[in-house]
Write a structure and sequence with these properties.
This is LPXTG cell wall anchor domain-containing protein. By secondary structure, the chain is α+β, with helices and mostly antiparallel strands. Helices cover about 55% and strands about 35% of the residues. It has one domain.
């Protein structure tokens, strides 16, 4: 399997996941303080929204790439 086919499949999977989930969250540690034996840290949860158009464009680009590679052979 060629690298181009693998990239096309990854684009298709990313597009489908973007359309299904629509957003993802991650946690990052924002502040940290040490007061003697105590350590304080604040964990902040961020949510990133994936636009529908980005999922559609990624899905179409992956499909077109896969189609172009398969037609070439």
């Amino acid at each position: 399997m060629s690298a181009v086919k693998i990239m096309a499949m990854l684009l298709i999977i990313a597009g489908v996941l973007g359309l299904i989930y629509g957003s993802f969250s991650y946690t990052k540690e924002t502040q940290q303080a040490t007061l003697g034996p105590f350590e304080l840290s604040v964990k902040d949860t961020q949510t990133v929204n994936v636009p529908v158009w980005a999922g559609v464009v990624t899905l179409v680009a992956g499909s077109a790439l896969l189609f172009a590679v398969s037609r070439k052979n």
